[in-house]
Amino acid sequence: MNIHIVATKQFQGVKGMRPDIEQALGLLKGGDENALEGAIALLQQAVFAFGMRLCGHREDAEDTMQEVLVKAIPYLPKFDNSRALAKWLYTVAKNHCLMTRRKSKFAPKHELSLEELMPDREELEQLDSSSIPNPESSTIRGEQAQRLREAIRALPPHYRIVLVLRDMEGFTDEEAGEVTGLRPGTIRIRLHRARLFVRKELQQKEHPGSSQRSSDTLHRSGNCRKMFAGLSDYLDGELDDFSCDEIEAHLEGCEPCKKFLDSLRATIQTCQNSPAECPDRQKTAVLRKQLLATYSRALATSGK
Is the pLDDT of residue 229 over 60? Predict the structure, then answer.
């Protein structure tokens, strides 16, 4: 097994959930006023960042943050588990975002196919070690962060929610399924296609001339097609040993597929390391005072 394959098998497709909500819950249990204000601020940041990633517009994210936290405050004393709280908050936020997003909710759903996401020869030729970003070596910011936001915003909403929950908020497949109501198998399919879409969008923004597709796509062989469909499962450790061996054997003899895998892995890490956007301080401060008063009443009612 070569170094490339070893590095691939060590890749983790799911990172831990962002610490904001866990820290907030810990502060809420502290009970003093300063701790409560810090907890509310963390929850504001978490819900706003999720809303920005899902809605794509600051105004919608701010509305979502306010709506969700106003609903959540009376129930906060009942939560002892940060992951349960995160799932509940993001479920409410998801419903609000999808109801109020600027694109009509009656717009037809666009289904992403593997065929349209497969690269052509020109794109593969542009994939070399210098063109594949290394998100672990530097902070993701500036133009790179903006390109990522635009790529995610271009995703159809029912794919975007899965990518955001899994690769940006650190949810597991099962937890993402609880928030979306989707089966694990559907989560896996949509996650893979969302990753491929974002990878393609980022590549085209990096190399604008690659947007013209040629008829010569990724080898068009059965082995390449099979490998292509299972890349996310392979990277996330969801495949059995036999299927992993098949993919590794194919990669050993297929340099274009090997380069493509590197670019997909870099895309996933870019999503995982992407910075969360922050809400307006003045607006959150005003809202936080209202939320603190509501929480104090809820705490008194609960008897804690």
Answer: yes
The residues that bridge with 217 in the sheet, in sequence order, are: 120
Under the phi-then-psi rule, with left for phi > 0, alpha for psi from -120 to 50, and beta for the rest, what region is 222? alpha
At 22, list the tokens: 């866990």
pTM above 0.90, yes or no: no
Residues 6+ apart with CB under 8 A from 149: 56
Write out pLDDT tens, residues 245-267. 999 999 998 888 888 999 999 99
The 3-class secondary structure across 94-113, one letter per residue, is HHHHHHHCCCCCCCCCCCCC
Note every long-range contact of 251-257, with CB atoms under 8 Å and residues 24 or more positions apart, other chains counting.
251/4, 251/5, 251/8, 251/227, 252/2, 252/5, 254/219, 254/223, 254/224, 254/227, 256/124, 256/127, 256/218, 256/219, 257/218, 257/219, 257/224, 257/227, 257/228
- Weakest mean pLDDT among 89-103, 126-140, 196-210: 126-140
Report how far residue 192's alpha carbon sits from residue 188's, in angstroms, rounded to the nearest whole number.
6
In this predicted structure, the answer to whether residue 148 has a pLDDT above a threshold of 80 is: yes
Q: CA 269: distance to chain centroid?
A: 10
Q: Which residues of 51-85 are buried (b: 16+ CB within 10 A; e: fewer)?
A: bbbbbbbeebbbbbbbbbbeebbeebbebeebbeb
